[in-house]
Amino acid sequence: MSRINVRMSDQHLAILGGGHMGRALIGGLLRSGTRPERIAVGERSQAARATLVRELGVTATADNEGAVAGAALVVLAVRPQEAAALLSGLAPVLRKERPLLLSVIAGVRVATLQSWCGGGVPIVRAMPNRPAMVGAGATALYAPPSADAAQRAAAERIARSVGEVVWVTEEDQLDLVTALSGSGPAYFFLLAEHMAAAAEALGLAAPLARTLAAATLYGAGLLTHTGDGDVAALRAEIASPGGTTEAALAAFAAADFKGTVARVLEAAARRSRELGAPAPRSAP
Q1: Helix 149-160 and helix 20-31, axial crossing angle in degrees, nearest 10
Q2: What pTM was estimated for this model as a whole?
Q3: What superfamily does domain 3-181 belong to in CATH?
Q4: Which residues are CB-neighbours of 104 under 8 A, at least 6 positions away?
């Protein structure tokens, strides 16, 4: 039996990178039944390793090769700029053991990841977002045709441990996912930040303005999630004809809010594509 077909709670899993997303995935895996002794984390920061061991009970090491050894599935959760050197250094053990590599880094394509691993390593890409830290993430997955059903199922189990999961059929669509849901929480945080600042400028006390803005952001998200997801209908229910919300929405329209949002997503998607572009070769 392939190691990837063994129950998730019995697999040895390696997570390369113990930052925000690595910690989010560890937390989700623990909540979904994976035993902490089954998780090894490769993390170069001694302070981060100590925190992971103390707070989550997993194994954390600066030895990435040791973390990966024997793993059925390896999660790549480092910065895009660090991935090439990391995977190239691990290529011998990855080619030997052939774990499923689940990459959660933005932009970097399957073909590029395979070239760094030396080929022959099964790869699935994921684009999660920061709410995964509280189990409310949105993750899009892409698997190349070479990935089999067991590998796809294993990747989905990892992603589903921290929230909702969707699959995309084309790898380029992950750039759009990155712009929409990957970076998306920051857009809402920015809006709430500006709402609070504007209310303060109009005379509301700053702590009160921040509390109300944060609570409004949270409540709006809950309404969207518990309903059918029709945000246009939810907006229309609040915007009574001739009322305050309609006046506010008209001000948004006058400022070309729709066009601004389109440009925001275009900029993020373009940057995701840039991150995935091969680095220019140095002149001889």
Answers
A1: 100
A2: 0.89
A3: NAD(P)-binding Rossmann-like Domain (3.40.50.720)
A4: 21, 25, 75, 76, 77, 125, 126, 127, 128
